[in-house]
Amino acid sequence: MHFPHVPRGPAKRSGEAALLCLVLIACACSKENTPSAPEYCENGGYWSQMASPVSSDLDGVWGSARDDVWAVGSNGVILHYDGVEWSLVEHGFASTLDHVQGTSADDVWAAGWEEGETRVYHYDGSTWSRSDPGFNGKIRGMWVAGPDSVWTTGSHLNQGRIWHYDGSGWAAVGNEMDEVRSAWSPSPDTTYFIGSTYSGSEVDPPAYDVVRYDGSSFETMYSLEWTDFNGIFGIDENNIYVVGDTWNEAALDITGLILSGDGTNFSVMDVDPEHEINDLWGNLPENLFAVGDHGTILQRDQSGWRSVDVGIDAQLKGVWGVSGTKAFAVGSAGTILHYTCDPPEEDTDTGPETFDFEELFHYEGTEFYGIWAESPSELYIASTTGVWLVHDEVNADLIWTKSGMYLEGIWGAAGTANVFAVGADSDGALIVHCNGDECQEMEVESPATLVDIHGFSATEVYAVGYNYSGGYPLAFVLQYDGNTWQSMELESDTMLTDIWGAAPDDLWVTGWTFEGDGEVEYGRILHYDGIEWTLAEDCLETDLLNIHGNAQGNIIAVGQNEFAPVLGGSPFGQVMRFDGSQWSEILTQDERGFRAVWVSPNEEIYIGASRWLEVEQKLETEVLRFTGDDFEVLSCQTTDPGDPIEDFWGESDDVLFAITREGSLLRRSDGL
C-alpha cells in the first residue's frame, strides 16, 4: 500500500492514526469475508494413481504440507513429493523403513529395522542422520507427538518394547505386553498404545488391547480376542480409532476391523471390510480414510462407511492427509495414490493395450532357455525340443532335435557362422554346433549337465554345468580350442548356472550350493583369471541364476529363492553388482524373483522378474530396468502372464529380445 506524504508534527500523528484505523478495519473486513477452506469433499472425492519412481514396497507416508510429503519403504527407500512429482532421496542407509512422521518441514522422523535391530532416522531440513533407541527386535510403530516427544514401539523375544525420545535422548518405558504395535498421544501426559497380551496357553486365545499410559502406569481400556491390531489414530481424545483384522465366524475367514472410542470406551464400528485394514487417517469423525490389503480403501462421511474401488490389488500400508480434501496412500510395488476433490483427467486413449515387451510368437509344448542372435533377423533359441532358428522375428524353424535331450544355453561367434548350444542327454553333456540352418552333435565326454556357454571366438569357448556326486553338486567347466572339448580343473561343490566374461582372463560364473542335508542354500560367484578358478563371492542369500555385463567394471548377477514359488510363497530376489573391485548388493525384494539379466552398451540393466500376486496366488512376469537411480517396472505381453523370462539378447537398448520358459519370444517395443 502507498502512503501519501504527511507533514511533521501533531497533524502527522493524527493522520497516521486515522489511516491505521482504516487499514485495520479493511483487514478485519477482508478476513471476515474470506471463505474458509472446505473440510471435506462434498462430492466424495476421487482417488487416482500417481507416477512412482520406485518399484519397492512403500509402508509409510506423512507430510508437513501439500508440497512437502514423505514416503518410506523397503530397501531404504525414502521418497519426497514437492507438489509436482515424487523423487528418490539419497541418504546412504540400507534399512527397511516402515514409518515416517514429523512435526514440520525440518523435523521429520523415519523408523524401520536392519539386521534385526531397530533403526530410527531424523531429518533436520537438510540431511538425514541416525538416532537409534538402541534395542534389538523389529520396530512395529512410531508416533511423533512433538519436537521433543517421539515414541517407538515393537517387540523382542516375546517382550513388548516402548522407547521414548524427550529431545535429548531415548529411554525405555517398561510394560507387560508381549508386543506393542503402535502409539498415539492426544496430550503430553496421555498416550494410547495397542499391543498383544497372548499368554501362550493353548486354552487362552490371543488378544489385543488398547492401553492408556499416563506417564507412570498403564491401564487397559479395551481388549478383543482372536484379533490383530495394526494401527491407532485419533482426531482428539474423544475420537480415537484402531484398525486391524479379526476372525469372522460367519465368513470362516479373517476380515478387517475398525474400532472407535472416546478414550475410555471402545467398540467395533459398523463396517465389514473383506480384507485386513492397515492404517487410518482423518480430520473429522465424518471424514475418515482407512486402507488395507488388496487395494482396500474405505471412506466415512456423514452417511457412514463406504468402499472405494481404485482398480488395484496392491497391499496399501499407509495413509495420510494434508487436509480433508487432499490425501495420499502408499503400498506394495511402489504404489502411490492421491485423493482430491477434483476428478482425474479422462483418458481419451481407446486404443489396444500396449506393453513394454511385446510377444512376437508363442510355441506350445517346448521350453525356451537360451537365446543368441547373429542379427535381429536371425535368432537362435535353445530349448527342450532342440535348436530353433527364427527368421525376421516371426518365422521359426526347429533346425535340430533329438529324443531324450534338452538344451539350456546357446552362444555364437558373430560373423563366423559358428553357433554352439549346450545341454544334456542320457549320456551326459550334450553340445550342438550349428552353421546357418545346419547343425550336428559334437563329440564330448563329460557326465555334466551343461547349462550355459560363452566365448570370445570360434576357437575360444567355455561351457559350464554340474553333476551330482554322492548327493552333492560338482562343478564342471569345459573349454573348446577349435578342435576338442576339454574339462578344466575346478574343484567346487557348486551347481553352476551361468557364465559371462569380458575377456579370456576375466570369466565369471554364477551358481549355488547347500549345507547339511540341503536345508540351507546360498549363492556363489566364481572367477577365472586365465590361470585358475577362485571363489569371488560366497554365502549370498539366494541361488544366483544369471550373470551379464558390458565391461570389466560393470557386471550384474541376479538370483532368487528357487523353491518359494513352488511351495506357494513369494520369490525372494537379489541383484549383485561388481564395480571393478568388489561385489555389492544393489537390490533385494521379498516379492520378486530374478532369473535373467542383460546390461546394455550404455549401462542400463534389464532384469527378468517374477512378482507374486497374493490374491491370485500366482506369478506375474515383469522386466525391471535400472538406469542408475532406481528400478523401473516394465510390462510384458505373454500368453501366460506368469511365464518367467529365462534369457535376454540385445545389441542396443532399442533392439532387445527376451524368451520365456513356456515358449514365447518377446521384443522391446519401439519408442520405449
Helix content: under 10%
Number of helices: 1
Indicate the low-confidence ranges by residue numbers: 1-35
Shape type: elongated
Q: Radius of gyration in whole Å, from Cα?
A: 31 Å
Strand residues, percent? over 45%
Instruction: Return the structural class.
Output: mainly beta
Strand order of the largest sheet: 1-28-27-26
The strand count comes to 56
The averaged pLDDT comes out at 86
The separation of the N and C termini measures 54 Å
How would you describe the overall organization of this protein?
The chain is mainly β and 672 residues long. It contains one helix and 56 strands. The strands form 14 sheets. It has a four-stranded antiparallel sheet with strand order 1-28-27-26, with no helix packed on it. Strands 2-3-4-5 form a four-stranded antiparallel sheet, with no helix packed on it. Strands 6-7-8-9 form a four-stranded antiparallel sheet, with no helix packed on it. The two termini are 54 Å apart. Mean pLDDT is 86; it is low at 1-35.
